[in-house]
Structure formats: structure tokens, C-alpha cells
Amino acid sequence: MLLRLSLGVLPFVGSALAQAAAQFTDPDNGITFWGITDVVHDVTYGYVFPPLATSGSNPTEYIGTIVSPLVNQWNGSVCSMIDSLLVAAWPNNGEIVFTTRYATTNVLPDVYPGPVITTLPTSYVNSTHWKWVYRCQNCTTWVGGGSIDVNSQSAVPAWCSSTIAVDDPADPGTSMVQHTDFGFYFFPFAEAHVSASVYNNWASGGTGGGTTTSTTTTTTSTGPAAPSATPVDYIIVGAGPGGIITADRISQAGKKVLLLERGGPSTWETGGRYTAPWLEGTDFTKFDVPGLFESMFTDPNAFWWCKDITVFAGCLVGGGGAVNGALYWLPSDEDFSTSSGWPTQWTNHQPYTAALKARLPPTDAPSTDGKRYLEQVSNVVSQLLIPQGYRNVTINDNPDDKDHIYVHMTLSAANAVDQSPHTYKPLSHAQTSSSKWTHMCGTSFETAPQITGVKTNDTSVLNGIYPLNPGGRVILSGGSYGSARILYRSGIGPTDMIELVQGDPVAGPLLPPSSQWINLPVGYNVSDNPSINLVFTHPSAFLIFPSRPVLKNIFLSYDNWADVFTPGPPAADAAQYIASQSGVMAQASPRLNFWQALGATDGTTRWMQGTARPGAASVTTVYPYNETQIFTITAYLSSGIKSRGRLGINAALNALPLVNPWLVDPVDKSTLITGLKDIVSTLSLVPGLTLITPDNTTTIDEYVDTYDPSTMDSNHWIGSNIIGPQGKAVVDVNTKVYGTNNLFVVDASIVPTLPFGNPHGLIMSMAEQAAAKILALAT
Ligand SMILES: Cc1cc2nc3c(=O)[nH]c(=O)nc-3n(C[C@H](O)[C@H](O)[C@H](O)COP(=O)(O)OP(=O)(O)OC[C@H]3O[C@@H](n4cnc5c(N)ncnc54)[C@H](O)[C@@H]3O)c2cc1C
Ligand SMILES: *[C@@H]1O[C@H](CO)[C@@H](O)[C@H](O)[C@H]1NC(C)=O
Ligand SMILES: *[C@@H]1O[C@H](CO)[C@@H](O)[C@H](O)[C@H]1NC(C)=O
Ligand SMILES: *[C@@H]1O[C@H](CO)[C@@H](O)[C@H](O)[C@H]1NC(C)=O
Ligand SMILES: *[C@@H]1O[C@H](CO)[C@@H](O)[C@H](O)[C@H]1NC(C)=O
Ligand SMILES: *[C@@H]1O[C@H](CO)[C@@H](O)[C@H](O)[C@H]1NC(C)=O
Ligand SMILES: *[C@@H]1O[C@H](CO)[C@@H](O)[C@H](O)[C@H]1NC(C)=O
Ligand SMILES: *[C@@H]1O[C@H](CO)[C@@H](O)[C@H](O)[C@H]1NC(C)=O
Ligand SMILES: CC(=O)N[C@H]1CO[C@H](CO)[C@@H](O)[C@@H]1O
Q1: Which atom of ligand 5 is nearest the CA belonging to 393?
Q2: Is the pTM above the cut of 0.90?
Q3: Closest ligand to the CA of 9
Q4: Beta-ladder partners of 91
Q5: Are 160 and 182 in contact (CB under 8 A)?
Q6: How far, in Å, from the CA of 167 to the mean position of ligand 4?
Q7: pLDDT surpasses 70 at 342
Q8: What is the pLDDT of residues 392-449, one digit of tens each?
Q9: Are 43 and 28 contacting, i.e. CB atoms less than 8 angstroms apart?
Q10: Bridge partners of residue 182, in order along the sequence
Q11: Are 411 and 363 in contact (CB under 8 A)?
């Protein structure tokens, strides 16, 4: 099979960057590696470095590890890759054979002689696994000027594996096939250093514990000189769509509000200055320009992702709203109905949705010249849909009309500048009580049930605590994963999660005594749209940027959006955007969206959303195809989904899915299959249109059966702090956490069921309504 995978992975089409490294200790030797265990093959990769060059010796080496299962005597190779330097290994007759290769082109890489590798004594092959612990010297810089920045906070190394055995397993210089699978992960090189004495002990085969030299963030301030922070009426933790809107509306009502955001600024207006080289000298950051959306997933300096959440989550001002595709659908009545799980008091959403619409008007033609660009995909896909009875509508004119409609992609962007949710920003920030509010991580709450303040990692205030005025309230808006974690760290949630916090040396001692823990289903009931990609070719050229990059290495081929950040779009498109915010860069990659109701065998109705865009993140076909002709339809199952999963934390307090929520319910799966078959049912009516993934050697049923569940992630997580009745839910009708007097949650996590489309429109309307309900409560 020809397998083309690209780094240009869209959030709603894949999750190649979904993992973040965490620290773990090898029980056989005490080495504290940083790394990951890839979720598909269960292979662990880790690295630990000597002290930073500035403070110690050995700046060019590291100790690495690979631990791999021996599934079915599988003896394919596994590799660990930093930039283009690849260290591959495989078992052979009870020993581990390894090689270093340097990958520059789309051919088999040559053996690369520079690195000096020593296998350390705690390596072995047992009946189920092989484990390799190795010292790699002369491994952090290489010919051609490449190097690892061992002080970087967010590098992106790769793992790769092949299920095909190397040609001659005894020979390190053997020829080997291209790796059949790979992934990337975030790696904080700056954290993964130990002292010289500890490193040198391990590097010479010694064992025993070591402590990292990196500064561990502690949440308590010990300085007696730190002053108490000024109390406020409301502390809102998290500046995503939920938190910004809530802060804005509550401060507008005259309350004194402190908004705390763990990340830094994003758009120009919020103080962000990170931008593409072609935008230098303008007031447009990466987060302002809709057309840069796909570069969120290809930029090696991806500081905006939360590094302690294993799925995509934005940790910066605007949260997910600053890094998302800004697809913007106003909620329908059904989205806020009791049958969707909302309490009766929430069904009158219209005034709040109208307030949102007035503040953040949707547009399906964001380019300031009113034109739409690169519409070939729309033209082809509408030819596919019209014979199925689809109608062309303007979606946000009538959000209740969703069956068999197709629409232009619709953005929350005013004048082709990404506005979500930044139109709310100036008001709220002008009215926060503190000029200092970013880079502040809320960690837990003081003294439930009556919360008196929020504990943060800010060492400049007494004990890191921001206090409330009498009658004050805390509103948690940290997102589906972030909010759940703060609750666990405050003793609120299922016991198994709080016990993990108890085991943490920093967070454990800050927990209240177990008699004060509040047992609520925090993290249960989560839902996310399962999404499946269909890839097509059509003779229309979909090439966005004619200057395709050279293939970077043996297994990565960039899709066409990869150029948008650097070197940038063609000069004329760049100039047009800078001069008048018009043209190709005025919108994100999707072009056409469509919806359809699907009757299901359990007697209920489920809905399917389709999103079409030029390019593809992954193609699997036995036939050759023309890369300039590919486009993707992502089909998501939306309203009516029954499947639920669970999220939580691990012992490192990283937040992660514990039980995947995609297609758990068999009727969800069969209904999505029906929808996919409907999409392609009119294929033969569109001249020149070919489905290449799955191709005609694979049925839709087989395709869905073998689809990697982790790539069904749509980043639309909801439900971890579900609203509903006492005993079943986490927050009550006013979004107050059960068992507390003054702790509220306003973010995606309270939403009981997924709406018709991408959720941030619904989440913002929800926040408008929640702010009104909270303000209406007697203090
Ligand atoms: C890559 C991606 C693409 C998406 N595309 C779309 C799309 O096109 N259309 C759409 O409608 N939806 C999209 N979504 C989903 C949408 O962005 C989210 O549903 C939405 O952002 C959720 O809003 P929220 O306020 O609940 O949480 P978030 O947006 O996650 O915001 C939470 C905020 O809280 C901060 N925070 C968390 N913990 C703490 C703490 N302890 N202390 C201080 N601050 C903290 C975080 O840094 C973050 O800023 C996408 C999401 C992602 C990740
Ligand atoms: C593993 O390698 C050995 C030696 O080359 C070979 O005989 C065996 O068939 C391989 N096993 C698999 C499952 O490929
Ligand atoms: C490190 O590797 C490079 C590249 O192969 C080589 O030129 C250099 O001599 C090596 N340095 C040492 C100290 O081995
Ligand atoms: C083999 O090694 C792996 C990795 O260290 C370990 O998890 C596993 O328990 C070992 N299996 C046996 C049978 O000893
Ligand atoms: C729907 O029809 C209108 C009027 O002909 C047209 O301007 C618009 O582009 C069409 N929308 C789509 C998504 O094709
Ligand atoms: C608090 O945490 C944030 C987010 O992790 C970080 O940027 C900031 O530097 C931390 N502050 C302190 C004082 O450690
Ligand atoms: C690929 O498709 C483009 C656009 O249709 C076309 O111009 C080009 O000739 C095709 N290339 C090949 C090799 O067929
Ligand atoms: C399958 O697709 C290939 C490539 O598009 C085509 O050449 C072939 O004729 C198709 N086979 C069938 C049975 O339709
Ligand atoms: C409102 C709701 O559906 N709550 C459910 C959340 O999950 C817990 C644990 O599975 C259930 O008991 C609740 O009924």
C-alpha cells in the first residue's frame, strides 16, 4: 500500500501531535526519562540530558530508551527521531541491534556515522518485550548545521515504527523499508536535564535515583515579604471562549473581576507578537489571520498547546478559540432543548444567542472584498450533494434548518481578522482588577464548600492566593480538561482521581482532608464528535500554494497548507491580505459544510456534519494519484450521539482521555457508516470524481472498522462537568458545583450533549446565559 502521511494534520482530521512528554522513572535503573508511550503500538520512548551547556559538561549527548512489546514475535524496527537524525533498533536473537540514519530525502536513508552509541547494562529482551537503554554521544548536532535546542520548551521529536522486519536483522547496516507508522510529540527539552554527577553515573552504567536540575514549579510562596493580593468579587480561571465572555459580562455589571489565564497573549490586540515571517512589520499575528489556521499543527514552536494535556488544547489568551478553525454556527433551539440534556430553565437561549450574534457577527464571506477564494472544492462537493436532495442556505439565518443543507464555511472573523472570542476582550480586560493576569496558573481552591480564594503559582502574592471579597465567587473556565483537573486538585471529583493528586509531592499536601472531599462525576459523561475522513481527487486543481516544499525526510510529505506560515503564500496573496485583509488568507481551510439527519436503528435521529477542504492529512490507496487534485470531506456524527467516555488525570497530573468516547455505542457507528455511504452514493454523477481513501479495494464498513480511534478526535470535548440533577451531574442549573456555596463552572465542560456543529458558537451563547444566571443569584 502506498501510504502518504503528512504533518499538516487538521484538528478535526487527526491527532498526530496529540501526545506530550511526561517524566517517568525506569524501575530497572532509576533513570528519570522524559518521554511518551505511543498509544497505537505501546512503545515507550524517552530521553534524559546532561546539564545545559551553560552550566555543565557533555552538551552533545543524551541517554535514551526504547521499550517495545514483542507482539507475535514481531521484529520490525522502532525508531526515535529528533529532526533528521534517526536512531533505529530491533531485537535479534535476544540482543538489540541498532543503527543511526540521517534522513534528508524521500529515499532510504544512509547509515550516519557520527553518533557513538553505547548500550547500557539494563537493556534486555524478555519473553514479552525488549528494552534498550543507550548512551548516545555526538547526537545533538549533525552535519548540515542541524541541532537539538536542548534548552527548548516545546520541541517536537518523532517516533516511528515498522511492522516489516529489516532485511538482515543481524546487520546494523541492513537496508530497511520505510517506517509504516510515526507520530510526533511535544518534548520540553529544557526540563529533561539532570546534574552532571547523576548523568555521569547513569551514562557509565550506574543506577540509582537522581533529581532534575530544572526548576520545579511550586505552588506555595515561602517569602514572608510577599504581600496579600487584593480581594475581588469574582475570580475567573481560564480565558477561553467561556471565561472571556463570562468575565466581560460580569465586569460589565459593575463587579470587580480578576481573570486568570495560565498562558500568554495571542492576537496583536492581546499583546501577542508571534507571527509569520511574511507578516513581520504588520499588526497581524499568527492568531489574527484565519488563513494561518493549519499552521497551528505544523509549527515546531507550538507554544500555544497545553503541554500537560494529551489532546489538543489551547493554553493562551482565547484558549481553543485562539487556535481553532473559527467555524462558527449559532446554536439551534434543539441544541438547548431538554431532550439535549439542558434543564428547562436553559431552553430560552434566544436572547443570549442574539447578544452573542450582535457582539460577534458570523460571516460566510470574510474577505473584505466580499469575494470567496479557492471555491473549487465547494463546486465539486455541491455537485455531489444536490442529487441527494441537499439545499443551499445561509446557515446562521436559520440555525434550526439543518437537514440536507450545504453552506459556505462560516467564520467568527470580522474584516478577515480572527475575532473569536476577542471582540469581548477589550471590555473584560479593561475591567479586570489587576494588570497582571496572564501566565498565572490556578491550581486549587481554598476551603470548600465556602471558597475563599484561588491558589495560584504566583509567588509574588502571599501563599500564591488570590482572595475573594465576602460574598465573592469563583468561576472555573479552564476547558473540559483544565477545569476537571483543578477540581481534582481541590478534592472535588471521583476518589480515584483525587488519590492520584494525593500521591503528587506538590499537589498532594494542598488537598483538603479526605472527609472534606466532594464526590462528583467530574470527568465522566464526556463526548466528542467522532470524525472520519474521506479523501477524493478531482481534475480541478486544489493546489493552494504552488511552491511545494521539498520532501523533508523519508516518511513525511507535507500537504499543501504547510507553506502558509513559511515561506508563506505566493507574494500576491500575501500582499493582498496585508493591504486589505482580502484574498486566500482571509479564511481558514474549510470551504463547504453540510448537514443531514440520519434515522437510526434504535429509533432516534442522529445528525451528520460534513466539512470539505482542499488537501488531505493522510491518504491510503493502492493506486497512484495526483497530489494537486486531492481534497477531504470530514464527516462527523453530531447531535444525537449516545457514546460517552471518561477523562481524567494520570500520576503526573497530566490530563488525558481515560475511556475514548468515539463510536462506543454500536448504533452511533452504524449510523455514521450509513451517512458515509450516503455521501458517496452519488459519486458516479460527478465526472472525474474519485474516492481514493478508502479506495475501491476497501469498503466503507471495513474502512470504519479499521479506523484508528485516536484519529477520530475532533477537539470538541464536552460533558466532564455536566449540568443536570443532583446525584447525576457536577453543576446545577445555575452552573454551581454541587456541594459548594460559591464555585461555578462556565466552559465546554458543563455542556450536556454535542450540538449540531463545531461547538464554540454554542459555548459562547451558553456563557452569555450562565453569566446572567450567576449575576441573578442573591449573594
Ligand atoms: C485545534 C482545535 C480546533 C478547533 N476548531 C473549532 C472550530 O473550528 N469551531 C468550533 O466551534 N470549535 C472548534 N474547536 C473547539 C473549541 O475551540 C472549544 O470547544 C472551545 O475553545 C472550548 O472553550 P472553553 O472556554 O470551554 O475552553 P478552552 O478554549 O479550552 O479555554 C480554557 C482556557 O483556560 C485556561 N486554563 C486552563 N486551566 C487553567 C488554570 N489552571 N489556570 C489558569 N488558566 C487555565 C487555558 O489556558 C485556556 O485559555 C477547536 C478546538 C481545538 C483545540
Ligand atoms: C523475525 O526475524 C527472523 C530472522 O530474520 C525471521 O526468521 C522471522 O520470520 C521474523 N519474524 C517475523 C514475524 O517477521
Ligand atoms: C560527530 O559526528 C560528525 C558527523 O558525522 C563527525 O563529523 C564528527 O567527527 C563527530 N565528532 C566526534 C567527536 O566524534
Ligand atoms: C519484560 O519487560 C517488560 C519491560 O520492562 C516488562 O514490563 C515485563 O513485565 C517483562 N516481562 C516479563 C515476563 O518479565
Ligand atoms: C448558494 O446560492 C447562492 C445564490 O446562487 C450563491 O451565491 C452561493 O454561493 C451558494 N452557496 C453555496 C455554498 O454554493
Ligand atoms: C505559573 O504557571 C504559568 C503557566 O504554566 C507559567 O507561565 C508561569 O511562569 C508560572 N509562574 C511562576 C511564578 O512560576
Ligand atoms: C495533476 O493535476 C493537475 C491539476 O489538474 C494537472 O495540472 C497536472 O498536469 C496533473 N499532473 C499529472 C502528473 O497528471
Ligand atoms: C478501482 O480504481 C482504480 C483507480 O481509480 C481503477 O483503475 C479501477 O478500474 C477500479 N476498479 C473497479 C473494479 O472499479
Ligand atoms: C447527567 C448525566 O448523564 N450524568 C451521568 C454522568 O455519569 C455518571 C457516571 O457514569 C452517571 O451516573 C450520571 O447519570
Answers
A1: 1
A2: no
A3: 1
A4: 96
A5: yes
A6: 27
A7: yes
A8: 999 999 999 999 999 999 988 776 677 755 555 545 554 555 667 888 899 998 777 8
A9: no
A10: 160
A11: yes
Q: Which residues contact ligand 8 via a Cβ below 6 A? A: 623, 690, 696
Show the CA angle centred on residue 432, arms to residues 428 and 437, nearest 5°.
105
CATH 2.60.40.1210 positions along the chain are 2-219
Q: Does the pLDDT of residue 312 top 60, yes or no?
A: yes
What's the DSSP call for residue 514? G
> Of 408, 429, 716, 760, which is the active-site residue?
716
- Which cell numbers hold the place of 12? 478535526
Ligand 8 centroid to 696 CA: how many Å? 6
Q: Centre a 10 Å sphere on the Cβ of residue 702 and count the other Cβ atoms it contains.
A: 11
Query: Which residues, 6+ apart, have CB-to-CB distance to 530 below 8 Å?
Result: 636, 637, 641, 643, 661, 662, 663, 668, 672, 712, 714
Strands 257-260 and 646-649: unpaired
Whether the link from the prior residue into 567 is cis, omega within 30° of 0, is yes
Task: Decide: helix, strand or coil at residue 353.
Answer: helix
Is 591 a pocket residue for ligand 5 (Cβ < 6 Å)?
no
Residue 100: its H or E element = strand 95-102
- Rounded-to-integer distance, Cα 374 and Cα 561, Å: 13
Q: Report how far residue 311's alpha carbon sits from residue 18's, in angstroms, rounded to the nearest whole number.
A: 5
Say if residue 547's pLDDT is above 60.
no
| Domain topology for 2-219 | Immunoglobulin-like (2.60.40)
Sequence-distant (6+) residues with CB within 8 A of 714 are: 11, 12, 528, 529, 530, 531, 636, 758
> Does position 184 have pLDDT exceeding 90, yes or no?
no
Instruction: Label residue 639 exposed, middle or buried (CB < 10 Å: 0-12, 13-18, 19+).
Output: buried
Question: What grid cell was written down for 14?
Answer: 487527526
% of the chain surpassing 90 pLDDT: 54
CA distance 547 to 272: 29
* Assigned C-alpha cell, 448: 470548600
- Residue 129, SS3? strand
Of 450, 443, 481, 423, the closest CA to residue 249 belongs to: 423
Ligand 9 atom at minimum distance from 524 CA: 7
Hunting for cell 493506486 — which residue is that? 623
Given ligand 3 and candidates 138, 141, 142, which is best to mutate, with the most ligand atoms within 8 Å of its CB? 138
How many residues are recorded in the chain?
A: 779
DSSP letter string, 275-311: --GGGTTSS--TTT-GGGGGGGGT-S--TTB-TTBSS
- CA–CA separation, 31 and 64 (whole Å): 10
Dist. CA 149–CA 50, nearest whole Å: 13
Whether 716 is catalytic = yes
| CA–CA separation, 320 and 763 (whole Å) | 11
Greatest Cα pair distance, the chain, in angstroms, is 76
Amino acid at 625: Y
pLDDT of residue 5: 30
- Distance of alpha carbon 523 from alpha carbon 484, whole angstroms: 6
Q: In angstroms, rounded to a whole number, what is the distance separating the alpha carbons of residues 732 and 755?
A: 20
Q: For residue 756, how far is its CA from the centre of ligand 1 (angstroms)?
A: 18
| Superfamily of domain 374-410+530-561+589-637+663-711, CATH level 4 | Cholesterol Oxidase; domain 2 (3.30.410.10)
| Burial of residue 345 (number of CB atoms within 10 Å: 0-12, 13-18, 19+) | exposed
CB of 468 closer than 8 Å to CB of 235:
yes
Q: Where does CATH 3.30.410.10 sit in the chain?
A: 374-410+530-561+589-637+663-711
pLDDT given at position 15: 34
Q: pLDDT tens across 452-491, in order?
A: 999 999 988 888 999 999 999 999 999 999 999 999 999 9
